[in-house]
Specification:
By secondary structure, the chain is an alpha/beta fold. It has 2 domains: about 10-140 and about 335-460, nicotinate phosphoribosyltransferase (Alpha-Beta Barrel); about 155-320, TIM Barrel (Alpha-Beta Barrel), CATH 3.20.20.70. The protein has helices spanning about 20-30, 60-65, 70-80, 85-90, 120-125, 130-150, 170-180, 190-195, 205-210, 215-225, 240-255, 270-285, 300-305, 320, 410-420, 440-460, and strands at about 35-45, 55, 100, 110, 115-120, 160, 185, 230-235, 260-265, 290-295, 315, 330-340, 345-350, 365-370, 375-380, 390, 395-400, 400, 440. The strands form 4 sheets. A 7-stranded antiparallel beta sheet has the order 13-12-1-5-3-17-18. A 6-stranded parallel beta sheet has the order 7-6-11-10-9-8. Strand 9 (about 260-265), helix 12 and strand 10 (about 290-295) form a beta-alpha-beta unit. About 40% of the residues are buried.
Length: about 475
């Protein structure tokens, strides 16, 4: 049966992969290459104007790892694509059996740091790639963008308003989740509110106002339905006249023992209009009525508005945050870092491509803090090194079983806000932010030098 909402459905999500993942796995199987290997998921470089990334998406990756199974429907389709029967028999009994280490969601991270490390039979590890990249890419991109918008708002609430322009149903849900992790006060997405427990917010559309004979009639109708939580959209025809009508309704509500929650500005010169509307409200004894602004906002626009003294109490931010419009993806990678040699011993491996070289071996990331607990620098080291710092990667899957106590969304959000508070202001600037120091340990540097020479010799390449 077709899903009318376009949702993949849990029973089919394991097929959400690139064909080449399955063709590689089939060839591994055909050539009896079944030994374990380790892969790192990491982000190669920062998007423009970012100096950090806010990691999100781990929970969905772990659910995928735990639940990946292939049904007869899946097997039938893969058979039609030319896969051999013995490989299909293998998939019928597929279950992830490896180990996974990961950075907890809500952690500030930086380029080249392993965020998820998978060690498993190579077919199992390979089949994790596409879903993990897809999920972490979106949620980390949005969480990072949203954290910048929240920072620009200087403590004023930000509501995620972008569902209607986000890229599909799944993206709409994950954007709401990632934005909340990053510090947004809530979302317009009702399903996200129901599923994740995120506070939901909404006002009215211009069409509602236009459907009545007059704007005042529309405001009265809405306030009648929601006398204790109305926010009136006042710019459908003329913002100042709309403010006057909102004041009339606010006074009528006061007589009935209620208070108008707010007015919403969605167009025009938000600085000038917010100042005028604020003055009108205050002069009418309505200092409690808040001004909510929306309309093509992002971190740069919000920063500009507040620097110019706009009298705005909260922001609804949609398209530009929900799609991370200035950079809608991160340069996320999933690469082999360790394989087993002919003697059954794990050996580090690396990619040498110019501008795309990778770091070999199983690694840990250590975070150093100052006396006040603020982040000073990170060190990427080999897993067995002893470094004076906080290790960021924790074991989340052992022998195919999730051993991680999933934090609540509120706990992930608290971690994110605590991490952001520990990052110096110079790294959070919207433009020209300082570069946070990330170093390689001496032992890792030595391994890179030695392995580079060895691989070039094996492949018949010239020396450095």
């Amino acid at each position: 049966m077709n899903n009318s909402l376009g949702l993949v459905g849990e029973e089919n999500v394991k097929m959400l992969t690139d064909l080449y993942e399955l063709t590689m796995c089939a060839s591994y199987f055909d050539n009896r290459k079944l030994e374990p290997a380790s892969f790192d998921l990491f982000i190669r470089k920062l998007p423009p104007n970012r100096s950090y990334l806010l990691f999100a998406g781990l929970e969905h990756v772990l659910h995928f790892i735990e639940k990946t199974r292939f049904t007869e429907e899946h097997i039938k389709f893969l058979k039609s694509q030319g896969f051999k029967e013995d490989f299909l028999d293998y998939l019928r009994n597929f279950k992830f059996t490896g180990d996974v280490w990961a950075v907890p969601e809500g952690t500030i991270v930086f380029p080249n740091e392993p965020l998820i490390r998978v060690t498993a039979p190579i077919i199992e590890a390979q089949l994790m790639e596409t879903f993990a990249l897809n999920t972490v890419n979106l949620q980390t991109t949005i969480a990072t963008k949203a954290s910048r918008v929240v920072y620009a708002a200087r403590g004023k609430p930000v509501i995620e308003f972008g569902l209607r322009r986000e890229h599909g149903v799944d993206a709409g849900m994950k954007v709401a989740r990632a934005s909340y992790i990053a510090g947004c006060a809530g979302t317009s997405n009702v399903l996200a509110g129901m599923k994740y427990g995120i506070p939901v917010f909404g006002t009215m559309a211009h069409s509602f106002v236009m459907s009545f004979s007059t704007e005042l009639e529309a405001f009265r109708a809405f306030a009648k339905t929601f006398p204790d939580k109305s926010t009136l959209l006042i710019d459908t025809f003329d913002t100042i006249k709309g403010a006057e009508n909102a004041i009339v309704v606010a006074k009528e509500l006061e007589e009935k023992g209620f208070r108008l929650r707010g007015v919403r500005l969605d167009s025009g010169d938000l600085v000038s209009l917010s100042k005028k509307v604020r003055r009108m409200l205050d002069d009418s004894g309505l200092s409690y009525v808040q001004i909510f602004a929306s309309g093509d906002l992002d971190e740069y626009r919000i920063d500009e508005l507040l620097k110019k003294g706009a009298k705005i109490d909260s922001f609804g931010v949609g398209t530009k945050m929900g799609t991370s419009a200035d950079k809608p993806y991160v340069d996320i990678i999933y690469k082999l870092c360790e394989k087993v040699d002919g003697k059954g011993v794990f050996q580090p491996i690396m990619k040498l491509s110019e501008g795309k070289a990778t770091l070999p071996g199983r690694k840990q990331v250590f975070r150093l803090r100052d006396a006040e607990g603020n982040f000073v620098k990170d060190i990427i080291a080999l897993e067995d090194e002893k470094i004076d710092g906080e290790p960021l990667l924790v074991k989340v899957v052992e022998k195919g079983r999730v051993v991680y106590d999933f934090p609540t969304l509120e706990e992930i959000r608290e971690r994110a806000l605590e991490n952001l508070s520990r990052l110096h202001e110079k790294y959070k600037q919207l433009k020209n932010a300082a570069k946070y120091p990330v170093e390689l340990s001496p032992k890792l540097k030595k391994l890179i030098r030695e392995l580079r020479r060895k691989l070039k010799k094996i492949e018949g390449l010239g020396a450095d």
